[in-house]
Amino acid sequence: MSMATTGHLAKILTDNQDVLLEGWLGGMLSRMVRRDKVAEGEIRQQAGRFIQLVVKAVEKDPTYDFEASAWTEVRHLLAEMSAARVRQGFTPTETATFIFSLKEPLFTQLRTYLAGDQAALAAEVTETGTLFDRMGLYTVEEYQRSRESVIMRQQQELLELSTPVVQLWKDVLALPLIGTLDSARTQVVMENLLQKIIETGASIAIIDITGVPTVDTLVAQHLLKTVAAARLMGADCIISGIRPQIAQTIVHLGVNLEDVTTKATLADAFLVALKRVGATVVRAETAF
Protein backbone atom coordinates (compact mmCIF):
# COMPACT_ATOMS: atom_id res chain seq x y z
CA MET A 1 0.00 0.00 0.00
CA SER A 2 1.17 3.50 -0.75
CA MET A 3 2.30 5.74 2.06
CA ALA A 4 1.02 8.75 0.02
CA THR A 5 -2.53 8.04 1.13
CA THR A 6 -1.70 7.93 4.83
CA GLY A 7 -4.01 10.01 6.95
CA HIS A 8 -6.63 10.91 4.34
CA LEU A 9 -9.08 8.19 5.23
CA ALA A 10 -8.84 8.70 8.98
CA LYS A 11 -9.28 12.47 8.65
CA ILE A 12 -12.29 12.19 6.32
CA LEU A 13 -13.97 9.61 8.56
CA THR A 14 -13.35 11.76 11.64
CA ASP A 15 -14.33 15.14 10.17
CA ASN A 16 -17.43 13.89 8.32
CA GLN A 17 -18.67 11.13 10.59
CA ASP A 18 -22.28 12.33 10.83
CA VAL A 19 -22.62 12.96 7.08
CA LEU A 20 -21.04 9.61 6.25
CA LEU A 21 -23.20 7.80 8.76
CA GLU A 22 -26.43 9.21 7.35
CA GLY A 23 -25.37 8.57 3.75
CA TRP A 24 -24.22 5.07 4.63
CA LEU A 25 -27.35 4.10 6.52
CA GLY A 26 -29.58 5.61 3.82
CA GLY A 27 -27.94 3.52 1.12
CA MET A 28 -27.83 0.39 3.26
CA LEU A 29 -31.41 0.52 4.53
CA SER A 30 -32.75 1.21 1.02
CA ARG A 31 -31.29 -2.15 -0.07
CA MET A 32 -32.64 -4.13 2.88
CA VAL A 33 -35.59 -6.41 2.18
CA ARG A 34 -36.66 -6.64 5.83
CA ARG A 35 -36.79 -3.54 7.99
CA ASP A 36 -37.84 -2.89 11.56
CA LYS A 37 -36.96 -0.25 14.13
CA VAL A 38 -35.00 -2.64 16.32
CA ALA A 39 -32.85 -3.78 13.38
CA GLU A 40 -32.30 -0.21 12.21
CA GLY A 41 -31.23 0.89 15.68
CA GLU A 42 -28.80 -2.02 15.92
CA ILE A 43 -27.34 -1.28 12.48
CA ARG A 44 -26.92 2.40 13.35
CA GLN A 45 -25.05 1.46 16.53
CA GLN A 46 -22.82 -1.01 14.64
CA ALA A 47 -22.12 1.56 11.90
CA GLY A 48 -21.06 4.22 14.41
CA ARG A 49 -18.80 1.77 16.23
CA PHE A 50 -17.35 0.56 12.92
CA ILE A 51 -16.32 4.07 11.84
CA GLN A 52 -14.64 4.71 15.18
CA LEU A 53 -12.70 1.44 15.00
CA VAL A 54 -11.63 2.04 11.38
CA VAL A 55 -10.33 5.50 12.30
CA LYS A 56 -8.42 3.96 15.19
CA ALA A 57 -6.98 1.21 12.95
CA VAL A 58 -5.95 3.60 10.15
CA GLU A 59 -4.19 5.83 12.64
CA LYS A 60 -2.28 2.84 14.00
CA ASP A 61 -1.53 1.18 10.67
CA PRO A 62 -0.58 3.58 7.81
CA THR A 63 -0.50 0.74 5.25
CA TYR A 64 -4.25 -0.10 5.25
CA ASP A 65 -3.28 -3.74 5.81
CA PHE A 66 -6.51 -5.36 6.99
CA GLU A 67 -4.60 -8.45 8.19
CA ALA A 68 -2.41 -6.39 10.53
CA SER A 69 -2.87 -6.46 14.31
CA ALA A 70 -4.08 -2.85 14.22
CA TRP A 71 -7.29 -4.10 12.58
CA THR A 72 -8.04 -6.79 15.17
CA GLU A 73 -10.95 -4.89 16.71
CA VAL A 74 -12.45 -4.19 13.27
CA ARG A 75 -12.21 -7.87 12.34
CA HIS A 76 -13.76 -8.84 15.66
CA LEU A 77 -16.69 -6.47 15.10
CA LEU A 78 -17.28 -7.76 11.57
CA ALA A 79 -17.12 -11.39 12.75
CA GLU A 80 -19.56 -10.64 15.57
CA MET A 81 -21.89 -8.83 13.19
CA SER A 82 -21.73 -11.63 10.58
CA ALA A 83 -22.57 -14.29 13.19
CA ALA A 84 -25.55 -12.21 14.34
CA ARG A 85 -26.73 -11.86 10.72
CA VAL A 86 -26.72 -15.67 10.39
CA ARG A 87 -28.96 -16.04 13.46
CA GLN A 88 -31.27 -13.28 12.17
CA GLY A 89 -31.69 -14.95 8.77
CA PHE A 90 -29.86 -12.42 6.60
CA THR A 91 -28.18 -13.51 3.36
CA PRO A 92 -24.42 -13.21 2.67
CA THR A 93 -25.19 -10.39 0.22
CA GLU A 94 -27.19 -8.45 2.83
CA THR A 95 -24.33 -8.96 5.29
CA ALA A 96 -21.65 -7.69 2.88
CA THR A 97 -23.86 -4.73 1.97
CA PHE A 98 -23.08 -3.34 5.44
CA ILE A 99 -19.53 -2.62 4.22
CA PHE A 100 -20.08 -1.89 0.54
CA SER A 101 -22.80 0.71 1.21
CA LEU A 102 -20.23 2.96 2.89
CA LYS A 103 -18.07 3.22 -0.23
CA GLU A 104 -20.36 5.58 -2.15
CA PRO A 105 -20.68 8.35 0.52
CA LEU A 106 -17.02 7.86 1.43
CA PHE A 107 -15.84 8.31 -2.18
CA THR A 108 -18.01 11.42 -2.46
CA GLN A 109 -16.18 12.92 0.51
CA LEU A 110 -12.82 11.83 -0.91
CA ARG A 111 -13.54 13.58 -4.21
CA THR A 112 -14.42 16.78 -2.36
CA TYR A 113 -11.45 16.58 0.01
CA LEU A 114 -8.88 15.80 -2.70
CA ALA A 115 -10.45 17.78 -5.56
CA GLY A 116 -7.22 19.73 -6.08
CA ASP A 117 -4.96 16.70 -6.26
CA GLN A 118 -6.21 14.21 -8.85
CA ALA A 119 -3.21 11.91 -8.44
CA ALA A 120 -3.76 11.64 -4.68
CA LEU A 121 -7.51 11.20 -5.24
CA ALA A 122 -6.97 8.33 -7.68
CA ALA A 123 -4.51 6.64 -5.33
CA GLU A 124 -6.73 7.10 -2.28
CA VAL A 125 -9.85 5.82 -4.07
CA THR A 126 -7.94 2.74 -5.23
CA GLU A 127 -6.42 1.99 -1.81
CA THR A 128 -9.64 2.67 0.08
CA GLY A 129 -11.70 0.65 -2.40
CA THR A 130 -9.34 -2.30 -2.02
CA LEU A 131 -9.50 -2.05 1.75
CA PHE A 132 -13.30 -2.01 1.84
CA ASP A 133 -13.53 -4.84 -0.70
CA ARG A 134 -11.33 -6.91 1.63
CA MET A 135 -13.53 -6.08 4.60
CA GLY A 136 -16.67 -6.97 2.62
CA LEU A 137 -15.21 -10.33 1.64
CA TYR A 138 -14.21 -10.90 5.26
CA THR A 139 -17.85 -10.51 6.35
CA VAL A 140 -18.85 -13.13 3.75
CA GLU A 141 -16.14 -15.51 4.99
CA GLU A 142 -17.25 -15.05 8.60
CA TYR A 143 -20.89 -15.45 7.57
CA GLN A 144 -20.08 -18.79 5.89
CA ARG A 145 -18.02 -19.91 8.89
CA SER A 146 -20.82 -19.08 11.32
CA ARG A 147 -23.47 -20.73 9.16
CA GLU A 148 -21.42 -23.92 8.87
CA SER A 149 -21.05 -23.93 12.65
CA VAL A 150 -24.82 -23.57 13.07
CA ILE A 151 -25.49 -26.35 10.55
CA MET A 152 -23.05 -28.72 12.28
CA ARG A 153 -24.64 -28.02 15.68
CA GLN A 154 -28.14 -28.60 14.28
CA GLN A 155 -27.01 -31.85 12.64
CA GLN A 156 -25.64 -33.04 15.98
CA GLU A 157 -28.89 -32.09 17.73
CA LEU A 158 -30.92 -33.90 15.06
CA LEU A 159 -28.71 -36.96 15.46
CA GLU A 160 -29.35 -37.00 19.19
CA LEU A 161 -33.08 -36.42 18.72
CA SER A 162 -33.30 -39.20 16.12
CA THR A 163 -31.72 -41.77 18.44
CA PRO A 164 -33.75 -41.63 21.65
CA VAL A 165 -33.15 -44.36 24.21
CA VAL A 166 -36.21 -44.90 26.39
CA GLN A 167 -36.73 -47.11 29.43
CA LEU A 168 -39.75 -49.37 28.89
CA TRP A 169 -39.45 -51.32 32.14
CA LYS A 170 -37.02 -51.78 34.95
CA ASP A 171 -33.88 -53.21 33.33
CA VAL A 172 -35.39 -52.90 29.82
CA LEU A 173 -34.39 -50.19 27.34
CA ALA A 174 -35.68 -49.54 23.82
CA LEU A 175 -33.95 -47.80 20.98
CA PRO A 176 -36.39 -47.10 18.13
CA LEU A 177 -34.51 -46.22 14.95
CA ILE A 178 -36.02 -44.21 12.11
CA GLY A 179 -34.38 -43.43 8.79
CA THR A 180 -31.11 -44.42 7.20
CA LEU A 181 -28.21 -45.52 9.35
CA ASP A 182 -24.77 -44.27 8.39
CA SER A 183 -21.43 -44.39 10.20
CA ALA A 184 -21.91 -41.05 12.02
CA ARG A 185 -25.42 -41.85 13.17
CA THR A 186 -24.48 -45.37 14.21
CA GLN A 187 -21.73 -43.96 16.39
CA VAL A 188 -24.28 -41.70 18.14
CA VAL A 189 -26.67 -44.68 18.49
CA MET A 190 -23.98 -46.75 20.16
CA GLU A 191 -22.83 -43.95 22.46
CA ASN A 192 -26.39 -43.10 23.55
CA LEU A 193 -27.28 -46.72 24.18
CA LEU A 194 -24.12 -47.47 26.19
CA GLN A 195 -24.53 -44.29 28.23
CA LYS A 196 -28.15 -45.20 29.03
CA ILE A 197 -27.09 -48.73 30.04
CA ILE A 198 -24.60 -47.22 32.49
CA GLU A 199 -27.19 -44.79 33.89
CA THR A 200 -29.98 -47.35 34.35
CA GLY A 201 -28.08 -50.61 34.84
CA ALA A 202 -30.42 -52.18 32.28
CA SER A 203 -29.79 -55.80 31.28
CA ILE A 204 -31.93 -55.85 28.11
CA ALA A 205 -31.86 -53.40 25.19
CA ILE A 206 -34.35 -53.64 22.33
CA ILE A 207 -33.12 -52.15 19.07
CA ASP A 208 -36.21 -51.58 16.94
CA ILE A 209 -35.55 -51.08 13.21
CA THR A 210 -39.17 -50.80 12.11
CA GLY A 211 -38.44 -47.29 10.85
CA VAL A 212 -35.28 -48.23 8.97
CA PRO A 213 -36.21 -48.42 5.27
CA THR A 214 -33.39 -50.67 4.09
CA VAL A 215 -30.77 -52.89 5.60
CA ASP A 216 -27.55 -53.49 3.74
CA THR A 217 -24.26 -55.08 4.75
CA LEU A 218 -22.99 -51.85 6.27
CA VAL A 219 -26.13 -51.32 8.37
CA ALA A 220 -26.04 -54.95 9.52
CA GLN A 221 -22.42 -54.58 10.57
CA HIS A 222 -23.28 -51.41 12.50
CA LEU A 223 -26.07 -53.25 14.32
CA LEU A 224 -23.80 -56.17 15.21
CA LYS A 225 -21.15 -53.80 16.55
CA THR A 226 -23.76 -52.08 18.70
CA VAL A 227 -24.96 -55.45 20.01
CA ALA A 228 -21.37 -56.50 20.80
CA ALA A 229 -20.64 -53.23 22.59
CA ALA A 230 -23.80 -53.57 24.70
CA ARG A 231 -22.80 -57.11 25.68
CA LEU A 232 -19.47 -55.83 26.90
CA MET A 233 -21.46 -53.50 29.14
CA GLY A 234 -23.45 -56.45 30.51
CA ALA A 235 -26.65 -56.03 28.49
CA ASP A 236 -28.22 -58.37 25.92
CA CYS A 237 -29.82 -56.91 22.81
CA ILE A 238 -32.95 -57.92 20.95
CA ILE A 239 -33.44 -56.63 17.41
CA SER A 240 -37.08 -56.09 16.50
CA GLY A 241 -39.01 -54.70 13.56
CA ILE A 242 -37.52 -57.09 11.03
CA ARG A 243 -40.02 -57.07 8.19
CA PRO A 244 -40.18 -59.90 5.61
CA GLN A 245 -38.31 -58.02 2.89
CA ILE A 246 -35.57 -56.99 5.35
CA ALA A 247 -35.31 -60.59 6.58
CA GLN A 248 -34.84 -61.73 2.95
CA THR A 249 -32.19 -59.06 2.41
CA ILE A 250 -30.26 -60.11 5.52
CA VAL A 251 -30.35 -63.76 4.43
CA HIS A 252 -29.29 -62.82 0.90
CA LEU A 253 -26.35 -60.79 2.24
CA GLY A 254 -25.28 -63.72 4.41
CA VAL A 255 -25.25 -61.64 7.61
CA ASN A 256 -24.93 -63.90 10.65
CA LEU A 257 -27.48 -62.94 13.31
CA GLU A 258 -27.55 -66.37 14.96
CA ASP A 259 -26.21 -65.02 18.23
CA VAL A 260 -28.78 -62.23 18.34
CA THR A 261 -32.40 -62.61 19.36
CA THR A 262 -34.65 -61.15 16.68
CA LYS A 263 -38.38 -60.49 16.64
CA ALA A 264 -40.81 -59.21 14.03
CA THR A 265 -42.32 -56.49 16.21
CA LEU A 266 -41.40 -54.31 19.16
CA ALA A 267 -44.28 -55.84 21.14
CA ASP A 268 -42.89 -59.35 20.64
CA ALA A 269 -39.43 -58.20 21.69
CA PHE A 270 -40.85 -56.48 24.78
CA LEU A 271 -42.58 -59.70 25.90
CA VAL A 272 -39.29 -61.61 25.54
CA ALA A 273 -37.49 -58.92 27.52
CA LEU A 274 -40.06 -59.07 30.33
CA LYS A 275 -39.63 -62.83 30.62
CA ARG A 276 -35.86 -62.49 30.83
CA VAL A 277 -36.07 -59.98 33.67
CA GLY A 278 -38.61 -62.15 35.50
CA ALA A 279 -41.68 -60.00 34.88
CA THR A 280 -45.03 -61.13 33.48
CA VAL A 281 -47.93 -59.27 31.99
CA VAL A 282 -51.40 -60.54 32.87
CA ARG A 283 -54.53 -59.30 31.12
CA ALA A 284 -56.85 -57.86 33.76
CA GLU A 285 -60.33 -59.35 34.03
CA THR A 286 -62.99 -56.93 32.93
CA ALA A 287 -65.69 -56.62 35.58
CA PHE A 288 -69.30 -56.05 34.45
UniProtKB/TrEMBL annotation:
CDD domains in UniProt: STAS_RsbR_RsbS_like
Gene3D superfamilies tied to this protein: STAS domain
UniProt xrefs under Pfam families: RsbRD_N, STAS
Residue ranges of domain STAS in the record: 162-273
SUPFAM superfamilies linked to this entry: SpoIIaa-like
Keywords of the record: Phosphoprotein
Keyword Phosphoprotein appears in the UniProt entry: yes
InterPro entries xrefs: Bact_StressResp_Reg, RsbRD_N_dom, STAS_dom, STAS_dom_sf
The keyword Phosphoprotein is annotated on this UniProt entry: yes
UniProt-recorded name of the protein: STAS domain-containing protein
